[in-house]
Design goal:
With 143 residues, the chain is mainly alpha-helical. The protein has one domain. The protein is 70% helix and 4% strand. It is built from two helices and two strands, in the order ββαα. A two-stranded antiparallel sheet has the order 1-2. Strand 1 and strand 2 form a beta hairpin. The longest helix has 80 residues. The chain is elongated, with a radius of gyration of 35 Å. The N terminus is likely disordered.
Length: 143
């Protein structure tokens, strides 16, 4: 099997693909080099090896550039996130102050002053359900 970049892969399983060169041992590599020497000749083999080295260097440089670009983008996103944290913390402080003031005042909730519904649960039923929900929440927090 060949990938788009011309790398030969040995497919082992559905999720695994190993580079073919990682499966070769020293003797097998020597045989492949000898066959390449016979096929391409002693004059062209060094040229081909040099080309292969150049392609490898170009591929590594491209991979390094991509990695640097991605790292720069991630750093930009992290700086944006850090810039947003400070205003959010400033917004949380007044809300926490109000919550603390309400808790200190002993006001847990306001009584219903709106119109009574024609059908469905009454405000008293809703308040009773809210009491049950708060009790369950307190029991879970206390556990």
């Amino acid at each position: 099997m060949t990938t788009g970049g011309g790398r030969h892969l040995l497919v082992v399983g559905v999720d695994e693909a190993l580079p073919l060169w990682s499966m070769l041992q020293g003797g097998e590599i020597i045989i492949i080099l000898l066959i390449a020497l016979l096929v391409f000749g002693p004059k062209r083999l060094p040229e081909m090896a040099q080309k292969l080295g150049q392609w490898t260097a170009e591929l590594r440089a491209a991979a390094r550039d991509v990695r640097r670009g991605l790292e720069a983008e991630v750093a930009d996103l992290k700086s944006v996130a850090d810039d947003l944290k400070a205003p959010l913390e400033e917004l949380k402080k007044p809300v926490d102050d109000i919550r603390r003031d309400v808790d200190e005042a002993g006001v847990s909730r306001l009584d219903w002053t709106g119109p009574k519904p024609i059908s469905g649960p009454t405000p008293a039923d809703a308040m009773a359900d809210l009491d049950d929900i708060e009790e369950v929440a307190e029991d879970e927090d206390g556990v």
